[in-house]
Design goal:
single chain; mainly alpha; 18 helices
Length: 474
């Protein structure tokens, strides 16, 4: 198989993530105002619950399949056999998830209030199983992934702007949001046959996969819990309005994080390939380069989100959601720990078969997050949700980085330079934001102006830093 360019894949995936920001920048300001905080909160609550159902259906299969197929993708027979076995397991887990959802809708009164939303969102779970998207990612086919994503996201956005007009259209909104993913899944049902045919496996052949899958499922459970438990617990203890406000704040946080994580995501199949081929030098060089890139990007990005928290909320959602400003500032700090823990988990621990260490870190973060949410959310609401997320991310970062460095998967070479440059830029961004806020202008203009000034100042600082480094100036 022809080796695909990591740079090309990274650019494609970053393009995909940028669209994932641009479309919400268009949709969220419109939808949040049309639906209102209370109705949007109902949708967000249903979406958070469906996250758990999708978790059970997925069962950690995607990450496990990408890693294992990437190791043997040069052998078509092994890929075909493995795909059949994993697809069979995925059908079993999907049916289990649907049964659990049905029971929850019957026995949990709070969920019955949004039964119509669940009946739509469940379509996503069904087609995600049939799509076998893990095949395209294992083969690093990011051209297809990106083009498919762009088409259906843009189509969904256009339809939302045309058809969602009042709070009563929340069901239509839920359906059109599903269209953005289900449409791509339907295409993948046909497309993935180029990598492996659709076929099932005898149940006795599945036994070898259950142990690693349970580990990945445990990791996924813990990750989803500490990502979604704040919204879910808010839904039970606070009002739909609080859920709506925090959901917008959380979405801003998730959007920025997903763009930066795009750099890590595209390298997962490649690092698994290097590990499978025992190419240690290529592996360590790749991890070191990605770590330095993340350092250069994430610190200024977090500073920008912190400085522009109120402006971002005003542009994306409106004045009704400004109560989430302090929560967004807390989550801006959380970005730093979240991005690096993602690198150490999916770039170091999982490709090297150290799943149990990632599981321990995930469980520790999830248990802390649930306990802290249950104690603090009833008392402090939205800000407590953000703070528990930050502390959970710190725990995850500390444990994953400890194991990654202990096993020498990452090196400190070049780190002092990139950290220094990034911290200097953070200070410059803060000063620039203070100056810009002195001017009376629209929030969108302030965001654009700080972004332009930040990019220019960062390029100057980077250039000066590299010149000084090359000249050995202390």
């Amino acid at each position: 198989m022809k080796e695909r360019s990591i740079k090309k894949n990274a650019i494609l995936n970053i393009l995909k993530k940028c669209v994932n920001i641009v479309i919400p920048l268009i949709i969220y300001p419109y939808v949040s105002r049309v639906l209102g905080a209370q109705t949007y909160g109902k949708y967000a609550f249903a979406e958070s619950v469906m996250g758990y159902i999708a978790l059970i259906s997925g069962f950690g299969i995607s990450t496990y399949a990408i890693r294992e197929i990437a190791k043997v993708r040069d052998d078509q027979n092994k890929v075909t056999q493995f795909s059949a076995e994993i697809f069979t397991i995925n059908l079993v887990t999907m049916l289990t998830a649907l049964v659990i959802l049905g029971a929850m809708l019957i026995f949990v009164p709070r969920l019955q209030e949004t039964r119509n939303l669940f009946s739509i969102m469940v379509i996503d779970v069904l087609f995600s199983t049939l799509s076998r998207d893990w095949l395209t990612e294992a083969y690093e086919d990011y051209t297809y992934i990106t083009l498919r994503y762009l088409f259906f996201q843009i189509l969904s956005a256009v339809l939302i702007l045309l058809l969602v007009k009042t709070p009563n259209d929340v069901v239509i909104y839920a359906f059109l949001r599903c269209t953005a993913t289900v449409g791509g899944y339907m295409v993948s049902i046909l497309y993935t046959r180029k990598y492996a045919p659709f076929c099932l496996s005898a149940l006795k052949r599945l036994r070898r996969h259950w142990k690693p899958l349970f580990i990945f499922f445990g990791c996924s459970c813990a990750s989803v819990i500490y990502i979604h438990s704040d919204v879910t617990i808010l839904g039970f203890f606070r009002s739909d309005t609080d859920v709506g406000i925090y959901s917008i704040v959380s979405k801003i946080y998730t959007l920025v994080k997903s763009v930066v994580n795009a750099v890590v995501l595209v390298m997962i199949p490649r690092v698994s390939y290097y590990v499978g081929k025992h190419q240690e030098k290529l592996y360590t060089d790749l991890i070191r380069n990605v770590e330095n890139i993340l350092t250069i990007v994430i610190l200024p990005a977090a500073a920008g989100v912190w400085c522009l928290s109120s402006d971002l909320i005003m542009v994306l959602a409106g004045e009704e959601y400004l109560a989430g400003t302090s929560a967004l500032k807390i989550l801006a700090v959380s970005l730093i720990f979240a991005v690096f823990s993602y690198l150490y988990a999916f770039g170091c621990l999982i490709p090297n078969g150290m799943d149990k260490y990632f599981l321990k870190a995930s469980i520790a973060s999830a248990v802390f997050n649930i306990m802290a949410n249950l104690m603090l959310i009833p008392l402090f609401g939205i800000d407590a949700s953000a703070m528990t997320t930050l502390l959970a991310e710190i725990i995850m970062y500390g444990m994953t980085s400890c194991h990654a460095r202990k096993n020498r998967f990452v090196e400190r070479k070049g780190r002092a330079f990139t950290i220094t440059i990034s911290l200097i830029e953070c200070i410059v961004i803060y000063i620039e934001s203070l100056c810009i806020k002195q001017c009376s202008m629209h929030s969108a203009i302030r965001i654009i102006l700080l972004f332009i000034c930040g990019v220019i100042s960062y390029l100057v600082i980077l250039a000066a830093g590299f010149v000084m480094r090359k000249a050995n100036i202390p």
